[in-house]
């Protein structure tokens, strides 16, 4: 089955999911590479403490992924939320929650509170697992791997340029004001990417998921399912 590149690349819901995940990935990778520097130069933690604190956000992210996934499934299966609404709600928990924590981190002067905000900013991102990261399978079961790969590639690109941009902003590693600028920028990325997803995201299967059906409709030929249905009706009559 050939990949329907044209319809896929013109799909607004697909691009909403692609860019939302890519920008989140860029923020995640920026934190991954810059957290140790921030902890040592601004919060003045020793190397041993630094290593432990750097791991805690990702441990919390792993732990929270279970209740987030379970609760999302329950809300959808019991009819409290449509699948599209659930994807947007959980992605908003991820992006808005993380964005608020990152923004607060930029204006926090207490080291202990800063550590808590730092841990929460990454930990709450796991709500995107039942959010945008599961959305690719909704949009196209047949081509979810393709669109996920596009998003993953763009996420890697953002992850490369993110630390470079931060290095241009933070010229003095111990400068609180420069790190504040970084955190304001990262929180803005989280807020705006979620806004795009809320407005343009969808969990509906896209028409280009099964291009053979569209091709058959254009040619006026029947699909296998339609042929089987016709044979059943013929056998009854």
From TrEMBL:
Highest taxon of source: Eukaryota
Keyword set, alphabetical order: Membrane, Symport, Transmembrane, Transmembrane helix, Transport
Single annotated GO MF: symporter activity
Location in or out of the cell: Membrane
Topology in membrane: Multi-pass membrane protein
Family annotation (InterPro entries): MFS (IPR011701), MFS_Na/Anion_cotransporter (IPR050382), MFS_trans_sf (IPR036259)
Biased composition (Basic and acidic residues): 212-237
Region (Disordered): 211-237
SUPFAM superfamilies, per database record: MFS general substrate transporter
Pfam family, one: MFS_1
Residue intervals passing through the bilayer: 12-32, 52-70, 90-108, 115-132, 152-170, 182-200
GO BP: any one term: monoatomic anion transport
One cellular component (GO) term of this entry: membrane
Protein name: Inorganic phosphate cotransporter
Native source species: Thrips palmi (Melon thrips)
Taxonomic classification: Eukaryota, Metazoa, Ecdysozoa, Arthropoda, Hexapoda
Annotated gene: LOC117648047
